[in-house]
Automatic annotation (TrEMBL):
Its cofactor is pyridoxal 5'-phosphate. Transmembrane segments: none annotated. Its main location: cytoplasm. GO terms for biological process: glycogen catabolic process. The keyword ATP-binding does not apply. One of its GO terms (molecular function) is pyridoxal phosphate binding. This is Alpha-1,4 glucan phosphorylase. It is found in: Cytoplasm. The gene is glgP. Keywords: Allosteric enzyme, Carbohydrate metabolism, Cytoplasm, Glycosyltransferase, Pyridoxal phosphate, Transferase. It catalyses: [(1->4)-alpha-D-glucosyl](n) + phosphate = [(1->4)-alpha-D-glucosyl](n-1) + alpha-D-glucose 1-phosphate. Its EC number is 2.4.1.1. The lineage of its organism: Bacteria, Pseudomonadati, Pseudomonadota, Alphaproteobacteria, Sphingomonadales. Belongs to the glycogen phosphorylase family.
Length: 809
């Protein structure tokens, strides 16, 4: 067991932990050993572990206060933290002690870990990145708070019924959350609407509606318990929960209206914004959590440092994408209206304190709000935004910007319905604006922020994303971790860059066989899980070809499915060939209002139904769409994957982190030169990745030119046959026209370049087949992938943020 000097915590024996669990079982859970059920032991184990964490948490907090150091505040709409029990045990160095303590009562730790629900606090890569960053902040001993919303139902729990996505409430909090602590003393009033009135030399915002934001804290444990930081999530409560006079008058719903309005703020992640009511709720959510967070940050600074003018010396606020961009206006409101700073002085403090991460080049993802909506909900903030805009545009005019450049830089989009540009607000209100992959950062300068970059040429910088190797190697793939440890020693556990020591052993046949044995065991375990939960039998000897991510047209699950149909056709037409057996695994959620994405899910399931029941393909091809893909499912799938599908339209994926997780677990990547694929290729080498398709520059040129997808389709026999089969109802006999519009979009427009990249993609897949049949070569490529992606650790990413943006290291 690790020593106290290594961990920064007091060592605990299995006997001591057993005694602690028994005390908790009796005194907090209220059961004795004979009456306790599985869920009682589960809660007792977490409470006992939590008690150990609390000591380290308090110690971390005291060290920060005593040192008077700078804190990082990470604002994000999502924190996809997954299950915490295994993560915390591993980082605290208590896994074996917990196993022994529970085994003494006939209990299996792995079974208790399976009882923990995934926290429904995020959806995709943005939220998982935030979770990795929080763990790395603690690991690097950087004082930090994560700020977000404590969603009661998250985005949704996905069920697949007759192939269609069905959205159900995610009830992860139904039996409480043993990890969290409510902090009623950290409660803030959040206002909406009303008016701004003159008051002395300044103004006062008098909101028409107020809700209370109350903090709920979860400890975030770093590697070896060196530091425990805080994830602070906000829950909403009405100021007046029950209008008793209305209730007694028989207006029961009206009496609870404020309660329902408050609860709506924390009920669902990303409420559909296709309606005016949905747009308003989403803006309310963003302001609610951002305003509470800014008030909390400023209150803490004033309490311990005194002078709000030094905020930037003690606080670094990072905005994770555009969702918390209103923080710029809210911080200005706090500095000017509450603390009495002059606007110019407040503006300098604001810019020095805030930094902004952009995660997308998609214009529709760079949030804008109808100006009337924004002004009605946040009238004082609208005034502040106009004042900021005036300063920025005058500055732009002085530098010689044209009218067109001024229009692009403006915080108000005047081109149609007047809208507030939140990405522009974040850009001008921050001292640093970073992209999340080298290609993405350069494209930011050339596209969405071209004119702002020209005005502020030193502001944009790159911080390529990373993933925590603790969860995405050590915890989800313990078999591979042990093989690596035997091969190169344990140093990589503390520093993922030391995985490079494997590079010299890439051709070691014995090591390749051991890693392959681990991979097969992981595939057997995944196949058994899918058989048990979905009734589909898979061959662990087949190539497991995986695409798991949010369903979106630019991520091109559709291209993968079209090639699957073409492969299905080829296998049936040429049974004499030695086809490589494949299992195609898909997973991910589509936004409830995203019609084409939901149609792609249905298509995947329609193809699976036909292919999996066709005896003519035998065991050569299986298609699986796993329901309700989440962090825990990823932890099963990624260690079992042979091929990682990263096939987005070039120039549209900011970074990706799934690509890093797969490579870290020995999967080969098939992908375009997009996002972090570019840097993965540079790290692992051309021979250990399969790249195909148009570059970002070529995509832009085709869109700007006279691209004719129909002509390309007619020239490609496999593509035209596959599209015809899908469009004509071969896979949807109950509704032959179901996919007509989806496929017609490729013929008429093909914005996502499925037709343009199909032949190259199909050829790349046959190259994968050839590589798979060379077992020694495949194993060597697996090792080279593992060896060369340690650089993509979130520890490295956070270290760069800390040194170059936050100035805390």
């Amino acid at each position: 067991m690790a020593s106290e000097s290594e961990l920064g915590i007091k060592p605990v024996t299995s006997s001591e932990l057993d005694q602690h669990i028994m005390r908790v079982l009796r005194n907090r859970v209220g059961k004795d050993e004979r009456a306790a059920k599985q869920h009682d032991w589960y809660r007792a184990a977490i409470y006992a572990l939590r008690d150990e964490i609390i000591d380290a948490w308090f110690k971390s907090t005291r060290r920060t206060y005593d040192a008077g150091g700078k804190r990082v505040y990470y604002l994000s709409m999502e924190f996809l933290i997954g299950r915490l029990l295994r993560d915390a045990l591993s980082n605290m160095g208590l896994t074996r002690e917990m196993e022994k303590a529970l085994a003494a009562h006939g209990l299996d730790l792995a079974e208790l870990e399976e009882m923990e629900p995934d926290a429904a606090l995020g959806n995709g890569g943005l939220g998982r990145l935030a979770a990795c960053f929080m763990e790395s902040l603690a690991t690097l001993d950087i004082p930090a708070y994560g700020y977000g919303i404590r969603y009661v139902n998250g985005m949704f729990r996905q069920r697949i019924e007759d192939g269609w996505q069905v959205e159900l409430p995610e009830t992860w909090l139904a039996h409480g959350n043993p990890w969290e602590f409510e902090r009623v003393e950290s409660t803030y009033l959040i206002g909406f609407g009303g008016e701004v009135v003159a008051h002395g030399d300044g103004v006062v915002w008098d909101p028409a509606e107020k809700v209370e934001a109350t903090a709920v804290d979860t400890p975030v444990v770093g590697w070896k318990g060196k530091r425990v930081n805080t994830l602070r999530l906000w829950t909403a409560n009405p100021v007046d929960p029950l209008k008793l006079d209305a209730f007694n008058a028989g207006d029961h719903l009206g009496a609870l209206s404020e309660q329902m309005r408050a609860e709506s703020l924390v009920r669902v992640l990303y409420p559909a914004d296709s309606s005016a009511a949905g747009q308003e709720l989403r803006l309310r959510q963003e302001y609610f959590f951002t305003a509470a967070s800014i008030q909390d940050i400023v209150r803490r600074h004033v309490q311990y440092a005194g002078d709000v003018r030094t905020l930037h010396e003690k606080a670094a606020i990072q905005l994770n994408d555009t969702h918390p961009s209103v923080a710029v206006a809210e911080l200005m409101r706090q500095l000017v209206d509450v603390h009495g700073l002059e606007f110019s002085e407040a503006w300098e403090v604001c810019k020095k304190t805030i930094s902004y991460t952009n995660h997308t080049l998609l214009p529709e993802a760079l949030e804008t709000w109808p100006l009337p909506l924004f002004e009605r909900l946040l009238p004082r903030h609208m005034q502040i935004i106009y004042a900021i805009n005036s300063r920025v545009l005058r500055e732009a005019r002085k530098t010689g910007c044209t009218d067109a450049q001024i229009a692009a830089i403006s915080l108000i989009d005047e081109s149609g319905e007047r809208r507030v540009r939140m990405a522009n607000l974040a850009f001008v209100g921050a001292h640093s604006v970073n992209g999340v992959a080298a290609l993405h950062t350069e494209l930011m300068k050339e596209t969405v922020f071209a004119d702002l970059h020209a005005l502020y040429p030193t502001r944009i910088n790159n911080k390529t994303n990373g993933v925590t190797p603790r969860r995405w190697l050590q915890q989800c793939n313990p078999g591979l971790t042990e093989v690596i440890k035997d091969a190169i020693g344990p140093a990589f556990l503390d520093d993922a860059a030391r995985l490079s020591d494997l590079q010299a052993m890439a051709e070691d046949a014995a090591l390749g066989e051991r890693i392959d044995e681990v991979k097969r065991a992981n595939k057997v375990a995944l196949a058994e899980h899918i058989r048990r939960t979905m009734g589909i039998r898979l061959d662990p000897g087949a190539l497991f070809d995986v695409q798991i991510k949010r369903i979106h047209e630019y991520k091109r699950q559709l291209l993968n499915l079209i090639e699957t149909v073409a492969l299905y056709d080829q296998i049936r037409s040429h049974p004499e060939r030695d086809w490589v057996p494949r299992v195609k695994i898909f997973g991910g959620k589509a936004a409830p209002s995203y019609h084409n994405a939901k149609l792609i899910i249905k298509l995947a399931n329609d193809i699976a139904r036909r292919v999996n029941s066709d005896p003519s393909v035998g065991g050569l091809l299986k298609v699986v769409y796993v329901p309700n893909y989440n962090v825990s499912y990823a932890e099963r799938i990624i260690p079992a994957a042979d091929l990682s599908e990263q096939i987005s339209t070039a120039g549209m994926e900011a970074s990706g982190t799934g690509n890093m997780k797969f490579a870290l677990n020995g999967a080969l990547t098939i992908g375009t030169l997009d996002g972090a694929n570019v840097e993965i290729k540079e790290r692992v080498g051309d021979d250990n990745i399969v790249i195909f398709g148009l570059t970002a520059e070529e995509v832009a040129a085709k869109r700007a030119g006279e691209y004719n997808p129909r002509e390309l389709i007619e020239q490609s026999r496999e593509l035209s046959q596959a599209l015809s089969a899908i469009a004509s109802g071969v896979f949807s006999p109950d509704d032959p026209n179901r996919y007509h519009s989806l496929i017609n979009g490729i013929y008429e427009n093909d914005w996502f370049m499925c037709a343009a990249d199909f032949d190259a993609y199909a050829a790349a897949q046959r190259e994968v087949d050839d590589r798979w049949e060379n077992k020694a070569g495949w194993r060597a490529s697996m090792i080279r992938n593992i060896a060369n992606v340690g650089w993509f650790s979130s520890d490295r990413t956070i270290g760069e943020y800390a040194k170059e943006i936050w100035k805390v290291l």
